[in-house]
Amino acid sequence: MNESTDKPGTTHFGFRDVPVAEKQKLVGEVFSSVAGNYDLMNDLMSLGIHRVWKRYFVATAQVGKGDRVLDLAGGTGDIAALLKDRVGPEGELVLGDINGDMLRVGRDRMTDRGNVRGFEYVQCNAQALPFPDASFDLVTIAFGLRNVTDKDAALAEMLRVLKVGGQARVLEFSEVKADWFKPLYDFHSFKVLPRLGRLFAHDADSYQYLAESIRKHPPQDELKAMMEAAGFERCDYRNLSGGIVAIHTGYKV
User: Fold this and answer.
1) Per-residue pLDDT tens for 178-200?
2) For 17, which DSSP code?
């Protein structure tokens, strides 16, 4: 399922319909704008809990020493840094991101932390990955899938580059389950977050888009069905923090 609307040739950019060909550029502008404040952005959006979610996401991944891992939308390297202990010195971590500004921030941060050996940085589009078939033991994407124009294509590519027996994991904002919490969540997303973005990052519009993009992302069961349609087996998901985020998992068999 693409992010198509009733208008042929359009897709969602937040709550706006835009030509499919323009979404990648618009999303790129958002992340170039927030690259220097990416951790701040996640702290504002999740009240800091994203760090706990990421640790759980990595701790429960199917990965071992010496494995080769692709982290898509690798951003500032949070997931890759956590995965380093899991794959060990003999493992390999490839950070892929379509946005060069985000990738540079991630590379510089990882280098500053002494994470050099075993890391590779590739600017790439998740919809057309520049890797051979069956290249990775694990493919992850955290808080990035909702910004991909053609999610079906990205999921198909994740499956293609996985080895047989390999696991794909998606960590993404999802659909809140408790009815009583939804008004509070909406108030934080659409009233508080853009104001915080303006105050701390001098960029309210990007934060408004990011809040809207969460609401346009497929909810849990729909994304699970999309992964099954892409060819993944044993697909499942786990809600965290009442469905604010969900971890989706699928395997290549």
Assistant:
1) 999 999 989 988 888 888 888 87
2) E
Alpha carbons 199 and 41: distance in angstroms, whole number: 12
Domain membership of residue 46 (yes or no) is: yes
Reduce the secondary structure of 111-165 to three states and give it as a string: HHCCCCCCEEEEECCCCCCCCCCCCEEEEEEECCHHHCCCHHHHHHHHHHHEEEE
Output the pTM of the full model: 0.87
Task: Provide the domain count of the chain.
Answer: 1
Asked if residue 2 belongs to a domain, the reply is no
Residue with tokens 């932390």: 113
Q: Is 6 helix (H, G, I), strand (E, B) or coil?
A: coil
pLDDT single digits (tens) 152-161? 999 999 999 9
**Are 78 and 140 a contacting pair, CB within 8 Å?**
no
